[in-house]
Amino acid sequence: MSLNREPKLPLTETVDYLALCPDGSTHPAAEIAAVEHTLTLTVNGEIPQRMVCTGEHLPQLILGRLCTGGRIRSLSEVKALELTADGGYASVTLDGIGAPEPLRPLPQHTWKAEWLFLLAEQFRQDTPIHGRSWATHSCFLAMEGEVLFSCEDIGRHNALDKAVGYAVEQRLDRSRCILVSSGRIPVDMAEKPIRAGIPVLCTKSHPTAEAIALAKQYGLTLVGFGQDLLKQYT
User: What pTM was computed for the model?
Assistant: First the structure.
């Protein structure tokens, strides 16, 4: 796969606002805001799709979106991935049509609760952009309790796709990986690790009933974590 250098884009900026007090008084103030980036993606010359995201790990976002959308299963299916210098446009050439594949049951897997407790504790330590702006979602990609990749994005779907994209890019054995997400898990979020072949999804938020049913159907281990306990839904 050919890939040009990823651009360095701003992730946060300082913005001014007017603070309104209970007594009716006001005063000027400032805070850190996350910066949105718009990426237009074309795959095999198809109609371009617009993605609003945080402007880092863009190649991983693209690879992850292709994988969780059922367009690719491995890096070998990507012939080229090209980004413009400003990161606004990307073109991907796939080896073949790359039509979406149906969901497949996940293989049998093993995991330990101690790994998830370790990951949950690291997750609570926050991530750089969220710690400054409180405006992003986070996702970890881990293996046996060790974080291999950490990313953030203004969208929880994007953050998870970036983590999956890293696994694709690095040709990792995804059947041994764990995803940890800060976001809610509706059914479309639960589909992503199933398509990616990642058997464990852990969240600090909550899954929907439909996501739980889908996880049971396809063998996805879905786990929520609180302060001192894990909740295994499958």
Answer: 0.95
